[in-house]
Amino acid sequence: RVLAGPREDLAGRHVVVSAGGTREAIDPVRFIGNRSSGLQGYALARTAVARGAEVTLVAANVTLPDPAGAKVVRVESARQLREAVLTAAEHADAVVMAAAVADFRPVRQSDTKIKKSSAEPDPIHLVKNPDILAELGEVRRARREAYAARDAAGGAAGDVAAAGGREAGDGPGAATQVPGDGPHPRVIVGFAAETDDVLANGRAKLERKGCDLLVVNQVGENLAFGTPDNAAVVLTAEGGSVEISRGPKEDLADVVWDLVAQRLA
Ligand code: CTP
Ligand code: CA
After folding, report:
1. Residue 56 main-chain phi, psi, to 5 deg
2. Is 133 annotated as a binding residue?
3. I want to staple 100 with a disulfide (CB 3.0 to 4.6 A). Which of 11, 36, 157, 224 is the partner?
């Protein structure tokens, strides 16, 4: 990459980044969690601020200092993260889901600390959490369809033209006329950590989730979790791929924003 001083190619854009890992409470003192440090998400937030974006950072259980210039929303569980991301995404141009979201949560959480007794412990029953990335993609698809249908019907042509091509936000008024109010960002980016069949799994995941870009990390060899370095392949919805060689998470973040900026241009 050519380092050409501070770029402002995300000026005027609102981007949402999720970072860290969710925690699913078992009782007031215990949770099911994961190893995400939040470093990659925070690097994404910092670099987006540096490139001129308005940044909302939804941080799940991250112990890093708030990045200067970003709006930070702190959450704990997957359901809280969903709420915060969907709300922020409503007026966003791009959403990058770098957070590690717990796939499952305990069906019930105890209001009081579970005590040890002479009996064997009860099993913890799990239930699926909502898939936030898939939901972002699904709501966008439904909204695009609704706008296209309204376009084709021609009836509310004036309103459609007024909203013309504006996908992010969809100004006041427009949103109320389209069924399924919801987030409609133009670029949706997912992350995936895979241990085997990295590319095939990544490709299937991108399609399943309906996102535009999927950053696929190979986990292991001291990469990814809690380290300053990362390496990845970015898969695109069109079937392309961009390799990012091992380097600082800031560099990976900049490549992601390069690809996002291209798609927003
Ligand atoms: N993700 C999400 N909501 C979930 C789970 C994952 O939004 N409940 C997002 C993550 O933030 C990430 C992407 O989906 O950007 C891929 O996460 P990953 O765990 O790799 O995908 P899963 O569909 O959960 O598949 P797997 O069985 O491999 O865990
Ligand atoms: Ca998962």
Report:
1. -105, 120
2. yes
3. 36
Interval 86-131: pLDDT, tens = 999 998 999 999 999 999 999 999 999 999 988 999 999 999 999 9
Write down the pTM of the prediction. Answer: 0.88
Residue type, 32: I
The residue assigned the tokens 């898969």 is 235
Tokens of 94: 């791009």
Give residue 183's pLDDT band: very low, low, confident or very high (50, 70, 90).
Answer: low
Residues 159-187: b if buried by 16+ CB within 10 A, e if exposed: ebeebeeebbbbeeebbeebeeebbbbbb
CA distance readout (Å), 3 to 7, 228, 251, 254, 262: 9, 20, 11, 11, 17
Task: Give 26's contacts (C-beta < 8 A, 6+ positions apart).
Answer: 32, 106, 109, 110, 114, 124
Is the pLDDT at 185 greater than 80? The verdict is: yes
For the CA of 205, the nearest atom of ligand 1 = 23
How far is residue 149's CA from residue 147's CA, in Å, rounded to a whole number? 5
Say if residue 113 carries a ligand binding annotation. yes
Residues contacting ligand 1 via CB (< 6 Å)? 78, 97, 99, 101, 103, 129, 131-133, 190-193, 205
- Residue whose CA is at the smallest distance from ligand 1 atom 18: 192
Per-residue pLDDT tens for 71-89? 999 999 999 999 999 999 9
The predicted pLDDT at position 162 comes to 40
The DSSP line for 26-80 is EETTEEE-----SHHHHHHHHHHHHTT-EEEEEEES--SPPPTTEEEEEE-SHHH
